[in-house]
Specification:
Blueprint lengths: L16 H13 L3 H15 L1 H8 L3 H7 L8 H11 L12
Helix pairs in contact: 1-2, 2-5, 3-5
């Protein structure tokens, strides 16, 4: 008997601002810049890449490239996209240990 699998895309779960913020926070906690870039791309896709690109004043194709696996977005692009998504970064001391 064959098992039927369905494709799953995390974007389907990123339907609220809180879910999007939690996903980005989790990506930051992983301390993996590549994962963070992909996570930002996922959130931008959930919001609508064209809409985010327009608000961030960045080309849509450039966003897809920057936030794809292996992409290397500049800090300026990250900050523009976060602003376009209505998200911000807060810094706190790391836990000793």
């Amino acid at each position: 008997m064959r098992t039927k699998l369905q494709a799953w895309d995390v974007v389907e779960t990123l339907n609220t601002p809180e879910a999007r913020a939690a996903y980005i926070e989790a990506a930051i906690e992983e301390n993996d810049p590549d994962f963070l870039a992909v996570a930002l791309g996922d959130v931008a896709r959930a919001e609508g890449m064209s809409k985010v690109a327009r608000k961030a004043k960045v080309g849509r194709e450039n966003l897809y490239r920057a936030f794809a696996p292996g992409g290397n977005p500049t800090m300026a692009t990250v900050m523009r996209v976060l602003d376009a998504l209505g998200l911000t970064i807060r810094i706190s001391p790391a836990m000793a240990g």
